[in-house]
Amino acid sequence: MPLHEPRPIRNPRKPPRLAAGDTIAVVAPSSPALTLETYEAISRTLSALGFNVVFGAHAKESLGFLAGPDKHRLQDINEAFRSPSVKAVVCIRGGYGTGRILSAIDFAALQTHPKIIIGCSDITALLCGIATEAGLVCFHGPTAQSLSDAKCPAFTAQSLLRVITDATSIGTSLLVGAGDSTSSIDVVTPGDVSGPLVGGNLVTLISLIGTRYMPSFDESILFLEDVGETPFRIDRYLTHLLSLGLLDKVRGFALGTFERCSYRPEEAHLKQSLRDVVIDRLAPLGKPILLGLPFGHTPLNATLPIGVQATLSGSRGDLIIEEPAVL
Q1: Residue 296 backbone class (left: φ over 0; alpha: ψ -120 to 50; beta: rest)
Q2: 297 in catalytic set
Q3: Is 225 a catalytic residue?
Q4: Terminus of the chain with fewer CB atoms < 10 Å: N or C?
């Protein structure tokens, strides 16, 4: 099978906004929930937000690190995509497994029944498939499992609801409601730039290179996050992207908190930090860089609409969503 060039995401369609009483389908493209109680918590949480909740027929299955056999996970996704009554799809969690079924997903169904798709981590593969194959705005945001966690901050749910229910907002700060967490944002390289948001989980994006689901980063604000990766691994991934020339035309870099992406205290002083890696690998490109934005594998997980225009502002230390993500 030939290798594919990254595919540009230009003016993607916007799905209809989510309204009270609408149906959300909960599916598991990757790994299963951590506990059986999680499924009940998901149902309570989404119902309390005012939505009708339905689980995929196989959403509660488990097969090792997979949420059931490939054919069952695929069936649930395709049924949710094809259903005219389902207005949004929320993925239970990331983990691993989406890439195994990506080539058989019915992305064309989203042309007939456009809807909101939400997730992060390994779900980055699904989001990139939706953006490249269906040309539809999709949402890098909390999984159903993290949203239903008793410790989930109000900021995370409020950010999600604002993005998927408000068809009028313009110039919305990513940091609305984030509180003191904004003090940790590091303006590595100053400057203000605008462009469409593209990105997701760094490791998952690397796994898409050469496939038809890899989006182009050209002229975009590239947002990246990860968890549990040491700085030398982050260096390896960024170096790979640099070697392929995939970062040459990026307008700016919006980087998350990169939870647990550090060395143990006793060895940290001997090795490069994540910030050191970012400066060494990305700063020479001369583009604005913000590090520590609240999204990804972190309790404060803002929702980022892929394909929507945004402004990365070094002067404000913020990422501003410039247009509504829904109709």
Answers
A1: left
A2: yes
A3: yes
A4: N
